Amino acid sequence: MPKAFFVDTSRCTACRGCQIACKEWHDLPTTATKQNGTHQNPPDLNASTYKLVRFSEHRIDGKVEWYFFPDQCRHCLDAPCLEVANGYVEGAVIQDKKTGAIIYTDRCKQLKEDECEEVTEACPYNVPRRNTGTGMMMKCDMCIDRQQAGLIPMCVKTCPTGTMNYGDRADMLAMAEKTLVKVKKEYPRASIVDAKDVNIVYLIQDTPERYYEFVTADNSAVGLPMSRKNFLAGMTKPAKRIFG
Amino acid sequence: MTNHWCDIENADSIMIIGSNAAEHHPISFKWVLRAKDKGATVMHVDPKFSRTSARSDFHVPLRSGTDIPFMGGMINYVLSNKLYFKEYVANNTNAAFIVGKDYKFKDGLFSGYDKKTRTYDKSKWAFELDDKGVPKRDPSLKDPRCVFQMLKKHYSRYSLDNVSKTTGVTEENLLKVYKTFAATGKKDKAGTIMYALGWTQHTVGVQNIRTSAMLQLLLGNIGIAGGGINALRGEPNVQGSTDHCILWHILPGYLPMPKASMPTFEAYTKATTPVSHDPESANWWQHKPKYMASLLKSWRGDNATAKNGFAYKMLPKADDGEDYSYIFLFDRMYKNEIRGGFVFGTNPAQSVPNSNKARKGLDNLDWLVVAELHHTETSDNWHRPGIDPLKNKTEVFLLPSAQRAEKAGSISNSGRWLLWHYEACKPMGESRSMGNIYVDIINRVRGLYSAKNGAYPDPILTLDWPSFYDAEDMAQRINGRFTKDVEFKGKKYKKGQQVPSFVALGDDGSTSSLNWLYSGSYTEEGGNKAKRRDLSQTPMQAKIGLFPNFAWCWPVNRRILYNRASVDANGKPWNPAKAVIEWNGKKWEGDVPDGGWPPNATGKGRYPFIMRKEGHGQLYGPGLQDGPFPDHYEPVETPITSHPFSKQLSSPCYKSVKSDMDKLAKPGDKRFPIVLTTYSMTEHWCGGGETRNVPTLLEAEPQLYVEMSPELAKEKGIDNGEVVVVESIRGKVEAVAMVTVRMTPFKVKGKIIHEVGMPFCFGWTTKGVGDATNRLTPAVGDPNTTIPEYKACLVNVSKAKKVTELV
Fold it and tell me: Is the pLDDT of residue B457 over 80?
């Protein structure tokens, strides 16, 4: 049974324990950041940031809402990045059968810069980043090393509030559905994001565009000329994902 | 905390006020959210909408420094709508006590005020006593001079209208909180209050907290599961360091500091030990001489005897009426009255108010010893920006100290739990633990005194000082030992063995203990109980998430303080579903009761508030410096010139120092129309000396910012993300503008008042992050604790013309 995360953003306090712990576990370097008028830092995912808590704030009908989104690779069931990358270099990206984790192997370094760009473009969630120094494609590896050693992923281990949950996919999906019923009472626009297609299953309290542009694979609502989902579907995806 | 972290889960209503718990105590929200899952309402009352507000049911913005009106309004609401828990109030609080005729309150001042000294003669507030010396009572609560009636009268002025136009909270929002929280005045409901520095750091800090004690007593929320007043302490061991007397005015275990007017052990115990004439009052502090004698014995071993007053005379004494806290310490330093000193685990150049003055004060030192993990603004004060290091005379010794994972020892968390941590790895390089550094320094000093026989060597040479630091040995000394062979409760103990609890401590020199509160933590039977990780519990304990065998809790492993107030006179819990203790006819079950006496109906019981002389929770608190009832006073720097509660604008007793650098903006000063509040954040700890050196944390929060409302930003023509200058009468600070809907303008007495907020963790030793926010804050303090008013002062904000601190 593949593993999955259930990320209940309605419990997230944006303590960023996950963001920091991810960096510490993977021994990733930091980048020089600036205060730009938001708590979100680094400003975006990058080659040394696999996990980033995104902040978005709103005054909706006079009420302040502050939404937090601990962003990371969704570990798609049918990962477009895998298909694109392996089209250029066989075995650049693999899917671990046991956990369902999408893993970038060392062969990614053989991808040319524009090919890497295509890999990033193919990702409906805009996750993979290229390390310009090593040429390696970087993103969350679902702490495959920890999982193989019988430990739970670092971000889940660190989370104090129950936002990050990890377990068998079926259990996580059940947990998501159950939680949604509860959260919807207070937040009727709440939803579960792309549960059928991904192993990192998010619950969001409000419409995706109130978080940021790549919350769902279908981001046509945010006004891009052509939604990424359609773009990539035309390229590589089977029909079920175009209409599903 | 009267209760503890896990117990928050038991609350039906949670009011977080004066705290940003989700950001500053992230783990607390594990328990808050569990309570919420079970249906609790979580309310956040705070000037700023923070990560705490985001996870609360609702947020109520409140102007900084107006917590007493907010809480006073709730007390008034509870009293006028008769929502209090009458039986609890009548029996467990001093509501029935008759206040003496000298007590008066008029226009913001209590009787006994001396304008010249800015102090009160507290004897004017005393209770009326009967011929046995016991306070007179009217159990019907009808006597016009009983506390209950006085309380009603005092808070009748705190109408919704008055409160709203002072706090800036709409009447609708006031009622929303009042109704929700007051609903916990029922037997089967519990409400908890979580507070932190947002309450303490005011010139009315102690009285802010008093309001919660009063409200919780009225609602019967003290002593019960899911109730209490829960102070969320700063770092993991702030509780432990306070218990072990990090503050100047106490000795370990909250024993008072000896004063010049108490020259002998007898004089000390006589002056500081309360006497009760009420046989039903446990008056626990009557045992103070035993705890003091044992403390002195642990300091000097055989050199302390009953005959020599346990060598009390050798202790340094504080001058009566003098204040030795930070504000005054740095004032003396600034006035060149201090030659040198040790700074361990703190960064005063960053965290003392009016830090321009504090930094200049440090310049006057001949020598300074700093023990730290990293260079800080304190250790490196001698070459701070704008200073010529060649002209600075201070000789600085920077001792590398071990990080907490590099040493073993105990910490006491906010819930008073003593938890052992182990050395995960050896200290780096030459760094050592603080204990190790300190023990060795004193041993060297002792060596020098032995060899050279300096002036008055006795206090140093008679110490029972270890030859090397060992955390385990220190934990044993804290618990205390028998100093001779004795029999206690039918059991024989040899000299040198651990005492089983503080009940065994004596005033005859038979015992030693470095801290009576921790007696029982390390015993012959149980070993080092801070190491316990056993989750076993009885079904009754399981109902309230009480784990008596996990770690150890002071006092005597009692997890919920004042728990005798959770039961009726027959020992039956008010709320059987969440019982803390229960009398089974022979003994108490559940938590460790506040004294093992049988229930009060037997006539052999004791009142539940055993640490009070009279045994009752204090609705009326005649022991404080600034009045027995909290009343509203504006912060020392306030944007308004009058308030509806009295003509007394600011606290008549607040503490301050005078120097050319201690300027204060006048009330309503047009040059500084904006309120500034300061705070910490999740990513950095306190002054940031440690966390700015952790790259991942600095990456997440890289630079000083000032949070302001879009309305204020528009008024000032400031864009989000641009650098501004924040200026008070004392200094200027550069910060990045964070324009956010999470800050709200307040409507106060019909006018709009803006408030901005800044963290204080950024300092110049980390390049380009900004420098001390505390260059803006005033050195004024609470009359009881002298804690500085970091939470409210006056500033102005403008676009920066030139940026120097953030590049």
Answer: yes
Q: Report chain B residues whose CB lies below 8 A from the CB of A9.
A: none
Q: Does the structure show a pLDDT above 90 at A244?
A: no
Is A35 an 8 Å CB contact of chain B? yes
Residue A110 burial class via C-beta count within 10 angstroms: exposed 0-12, middle 13-18, buried 19 and up: middle
Kindly report the nearest CA distance between residue A238 and chain B, in angstroms. 39
pLDDT score of A236 more than 70: no
pLDDT, average across residues B183-202:
98
Q: Is residue A243 part of a domain?
A: no
Quick one: tokens of B205? 């800090």
**Residues of B in Cβ contact (< 8 Å) with A22:** none
Tell me which residue in B682, B698, B806 faces A15 most closely, judged by beta carbons.
B682
Buried/exposed code over B626-663 (b: 16+ C-beta within 10 A; e: otherwise):
bbbbbbbbbbbbbbbeebebbebbbbbbbbbbeeebbe
SS3 category, B22: helix
Number of domains in chain A: 2
Length of chain B: 807
pLDDT at B184 over 60: yes
Domain range holding A41? 3-72+144-221
Tokens 């503008």 locate to B737
If asked whether residues A163 and A128 sit together in one domain, one would say no
Mutate to test the interface with B, among A25, A39, A61, A154 (most CBs of B within 10 A): A39
How many pairs of residues across A and B have Cβ atoms under 8 Å apart?
Answer: 103
pLDDT at B324 over 90: yes
Six-digit token pair at A241? 């994902």
pLDDT digits (tens, 9 = 90+) for B48-76: 999 999 999 999 999 999 999 999 999 99
Amino acid at B244: H
Global confidence as pTM = 0.96
A163 and A67 housed in the same domain: yes
Are A41 and B721 an interchain contact pair (Cβ–Cβ within 8 Å)?
Answer: no
Rounded CA separation B155/B628 (Å) = 13
Q: What is the ipTM of this complex?
A: 0.95
**Whether A150 and A208 share a structural domain:** yes
Secondary structure element (H or E) that encloses residue A65, with its range: strand A63-71
The pLDDT of residue B242: 94
Chain B interface with A: residues with Cβ < 8 Å: 22-23, 26-27, 29-30, 33, 49, 51-55, 59, 682-683, 695-705, 720-722, 736-742, 806
Give chain B's mean pLDDT. Answer: 97
Q: What integer pLDDT is reported at residue B234 of this predicted model? A: 79
Residue B788 DSSP symbol = B
Out of A59, A64, A161, closest to residue B30 by CB: A161
* pLDDT > 70 in chain B, percent: 100
State whether A131 and A16 are in the same domain: no
Chain B contact present for A43, CB below 8 A = no
What amino acid occupies position B322? E
Query: Does A26 fall in a domain?
Result: yes
Is it the case that residue A159 has pLDDT exceeding 70?
Answer: yes
- Please answer yes or no on whether B699 and A41 come within 8 Å at the CB atom: yes
Calpha distance B777→B664 (Å, rounded): 10
Please tell me whether residues A150 and A215 are part of one structural domain. Answer: yes
What distance in Å separates residue B173's CA from the closest CA in chain A?
12
List the single best residue of A12, A64, A183, A185 to mutate versus B (max B Cβ within 10 A): A64
**Does residue A227 have a pLDDT over 60?**
no
Do A109 and A137 belong together in one domain?
yes
> Domain containing A109 — which CATH number?
3.30.70.20
Amino acid found at B236: P
Same domain, A175 and A117: no
List the single residue in B29, B53, B683 with the smallest CB-CB distance to A161: B29
Distance of alpha carbon B191 from alpha carbon B202, whole angstroms: 24
- Mean pLDDT for A10-23 is 98
